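User: Last request for today: this protein with zinc ion, please.
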Amino acid sequence: MPAAHGPVCESWWSARLLQGIADGDHGRLSRGRTYYRQGAVREITVDADHIQVTAFVQGSRGRPYRVSVAYLAIDDTRWSHILDDLAQDPDAADDLLAGELPEVTEEVFARHGLALFPDSADDIDIHCTCPDRGGYPCKHGAAVMFAWAALLDENPLLLFAWLGRTEEEVLDALESTAPGGPAGELAVEVTPLAESSADFWTGGDLTPLARPRPFDPLSHWEGSTLGVASGLAPMYARLRRGPGGTEGA
Ligand SMILES: [Zn+2]
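Assistant: Here's the final one, the structure of the complex with zinc ion:
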């Protein structure tokens, strides 16, 4: 995990995420930003199973507070439609496979009735173990949102993990669904070694070879050195007959 401080909003997606909470408590958002910049956010992780981001935030004193941030729960059917749509769009799939988030992702989510990013702080469920209930989100929650945006700057595919699909699951879905296989590669079907290792050692079924043409050693001499072919012919004839006198193939 990268350090949970530093610049935020180097990408359109982290800017969109923070835009979504801009209507939250202004004083607390501002203090949260300072907390984040001072490195108060520790151990930020994204958990695709629990569809949430969790982190610890060190306050001015005592034990750090635990913060969790959840947004959308997406059912399996919708997920498969979303990933299909992204896979069918070669530009989008290319971007995602290169670790970028194409803007069309928002449209794809909208097509399935979902907002990729929150429109309001109230759309996000930010929980903190601190006692502050005076405004939403609390400064610890706000600090985690800034840290989360910074993490997304570096790897936007974590956004999918926040919504329930790991980066690996997304990339697998794109590679297996994309028309003609992974973009930029030849559409050649290759059986992974794990599925074909038995054939690898036994050879499997061999393709029948064409019958070899009869070999005539004398043809080499014919026409190039006069007399050699005719002189060697009786010797080759005897060799072919072998000691038993029968002619081989
Ligand atoms: Zn708090």
